[in-house]
Specification:
Layout lengths: L3 H24 L7 H13 L3 H14 L4 H13 L3 H14 L4 H13 L3 H12 L4 H17 L3 H14 L4 H14 L2 H14 L4 H13 L3 H14 L4 H13 L3 H15 L5 H13 L3 H14 L4 H13 L3 H14 L4 H13 L3 H14 L4 H13 L3 H14 L4 H12 L3 H14 L5 H6 L7 H11 L1
């Protein structure tokens, strides 16, 4: 939308305009703004989802510019979008009286009728407009027509109507936006890819088309090319921050942490003071996964300042300290997470591990028992509890825990742990017997035995048994 060297200037100008607009409420004196300034202010509030402020700005704008068709239509559009369509008709009637036959006015009037469940009346207006419409106008008419099919939940018909609209005018931003929503509802991902690739072959600078293409590619599992398309969208329109965020989130999901971090840092640079806690959290996650726990902590702490009741942030800070072996700090933040949310079993398990590493086995056992009470289907918690009990010399109790776990949790993971415990307490014959049972049940899980007892990798009898079951 804006060349790279003008983007920051544009943001600064908008911020200064908003400051002047907001200042009048403190002084109690109405300030005068040009019509164009009001339209920028309204657009900002719309984008920021502050609909009541956007409506208030339109009212103030119309008080100062009573003959402005643009402000009348903007007010009507806001009311339609906020499902107050009855209130929009007086503005539309006034606009029709001021500019009879104006296509933009007639299109919005038809949209209002459709939203008001008077689609037949709306279609009469649209059919009349089609008679002498050029391609750009026909595209706008078809966009309004598609809203009727959306209301009827006729998403396939909506898709093909929007497709016609875009073939008439590929730069129709409204049609591109609605198409992004429609494709998800209609499940026409492959057709969407073909359509948007064709549009981009004609004009490679349609940012929304690249974004829609990326979304469709995500749904078809073509992740690398989706990232490429997101990147094009954001490169073309540097203020298209949603494209950048979706791209970063996809990279994070794919565990491409360096790549995700670069996109998140770009977002942080663009958003500046407007950055939300989620962005700082994601940057923290990337740094933690890249084994930079100290850097991650700084971003998590900033996130906590913006969202002080977010238990996941405290837990993540605890994970950072745990990664560095700073167990006291880890315990402090795990406990903070539990203070905010005491129903997350992974918090208790992490706290138990931290206490175990501090040498406090009693507290470790207590917290693992709490984790199991919240989720008894997670094999790892049973295994950790048994490990802590073995460490404290309570081998018999550890075996009882594992037997209960085997009965509770599907799969052979806990059984392999029980075998390791049998070896550890010297019950070799029983361990070998159960190893045969475990190999029969789930041969592929045998490496977990070596994670618990690495020495068994040089035990000739154990290795021979594993080799025999491989045949």
């Amino acid at each position: 939308m804006y060349p790279e060297n003008e983007f920051q200037h544009h943001r600064t100008a908008i911020q200064q305009l908003l400051q002047r607009y907001e200042a009048q409420f403190k002084t109690g004196q109405d300030a005068y703004f040009e019509e164009a300034a009001y339209l920028k202010i309204i657009s900002y509030f719309e984008a920021d989802r502050q609909q009541s402020k956007a409506l208030e700005a339109t009212e103030r704008g119309m008080d100062q510019h009573p003959s402005s068709i643009n402000l009348l239509l903007k007010s009507a559009q806001l009311l339609i979008d906020n499902m107050s369509v009855e209130c929009a008709f007086p503005y539309l009637d006034k606009a029709r009286a001021m500019s009879p036959g104006e296509i933009e006015v007639e299109l919005l009037y038809a949209e209002a009728l459709i939203v008001d469940e008077r689609a037949e009346d709306g279609f009469r207006i649209l059919d009349f407009l089609k008679e002498e419409a050029n391609d750009e106008e026909m595209s706008s008419i078809l966009l309004v027509e598609s809203l009727a099919y959306e209301q009827e939940e006729s998403y396939e018909r909506m898709f093909y109507t929007l497709k016609q609209a875009l073939l008439k005018d590929p730069a129709n931003q409204g049609a591109l936006e609605r198409m992004g929503i429609c494709v998800v509802q209609s499940k026409k991902f492959e057709e969407s890819i073909d359509l948007h690739e064709a549009l981009l072959a004609e004009d490679a600078y349609l940012a929304l088309a690249w974004y829609n293409l990326a979304q469709a590619r995500v749904y078809t599992g073509d992740y690398e090319r989706a990232i490429e398309a997101y990147d094009f969208a954001f490169t073309i329109e540097e203020d298209f921050l949603q494209a950048c965020r979706d791209c970063a989130d996809l990279c994070l999901e794919l565990q491409q942490f360096n790549r995700a971090l670069n996109y998140y840092l770009e977002l942080l640079e663009q958003e500046g003071a407007d950055a939300d806690s989620d962005l700082y959290i994601q940057i923290g996650h990337c740094n933690l996964r890249l084994d930079r726990p100290q850097t991650a902590v700084t971003f998590y702490i900033r996130a906590a300042q913006l969202d002080p009741l977010n238990d996941e942030i405290f837990f993540s800070i605890g994970e950072c300290y745990a990664a560095e072996g700073q167990w006291m700090n880890a315990i402090q933040y795990f406990e903070k997470a539990i203070e905010v949310e005491d129903e997350r079993e992974e918090y208790y398990a992490a706290l138990g591990e931290a206490y175990f590493n501090m040498g406090n086995t009693e507290m470790a056992i207590e917290h693992l028992e709490e984790a199991i009470a919240l989720n008894d289907l997670e094999a790892r918690y049973w295994i950790l509890l048994a490990t802590f009990l073995m460490d404290s010399g309570q081998a018999e109790l550890a075996m009882e825990v594992l037997e209960t776990g085997i009965e509770t949790v599907p799969g052979a993971e806990i059984l392999y742990c029980r075998i390791a415990c049998l070896f550890a307490i010297g019950q070799r014959n029983a361990a070998l017997y159960w190893l045969g049972e475990a190999l029969q049940e789930d041969y592929g899980m045998y490496p977990s035995l070596f994670e618990l007892m690495p020495d068994l990798q040089v035990d000739t009898e154990v290795m021979a048994m594993i080799k025999n079951y491989a045949i």
